[in-house]
Prior knowledge:
- This protein is an all-alpha fold.
- Helices cover 41% and strands 0% of the residues.
- It has helices spanning 29-42, 46-59.
- The termini are far apart.
- It comes from Caenimonas koreensis DSM 17982.
- This is Antitoxin.
- InterPro entries: BrnA_antitoxin.
Amino acid sequence: xxxxxxxxxxxKNPYASQLKKQITIRLDGESIDYxxxxxxxxxxxxxxxxxxxLRDCATSHRKLNLNWK
Length: 69
């Protein structure tokens, strides 16, 4: 390991704007269990799987159809 490093030629991370933002969200246990079971099948962490699903919904402008009685 060097005693000193020269960062004068360094540049800002070009992917910094794409980094994830930590939030708190409340989900019911059945939903979490569902995504955890799928994550075991496909080998993707369940939080990443939930993020991929939500991103797919957002990019396809999918909206939930709710009918209150």
